Amino acid sequence: MKTNLVHYRTCVCNINYHVVWCVKYRQKVLTPEIEKDLKAILLSVAKDKGFTIHECEVGTADHVHCFVSAPPKLSITNLVKYMKGISGRMLFERHPELRNHLWRGQLWNHSYYVETVGDVSEETIRKYIERQSKAY
Q1: 136 labelled catalytic
Q2: Residue 99 sits in which domain range?
Q3: What is the pTM of this model?
Q4: Predicted confidence band of residue 4 (pLDDT cuts 50, 70, 90)
């Protein structure tokens, strides 16, 4: 039995994402102090919005990687909107010097990368589904 399954009232699931987003104009503004605040903010957002951040790291001071688990009722679009929107606003409040490097009040680039992460490979799932009709 898998230990990473999450039990909700109406379902059992294991939904994980690898999410990456960048600072606007790839400015290298994510200093260690800002990174520390960013991680605290993201963990708080996750707790408030009902998802889990397992890992979060800043890469080369201009982008963020997060490994996230979420319930099926929370879309990836909303999850990323919460993480980027709330963290961007709060980091500008806590570190007003960021505005010297970024204009128009935007910390994050509009785009992001997301990939689903699971315990089973795509090939294993395909084989399992193909064998379903042959079980009779």
Answers
A1: no
A2: 16-132
A3: 0.87
A4: confident
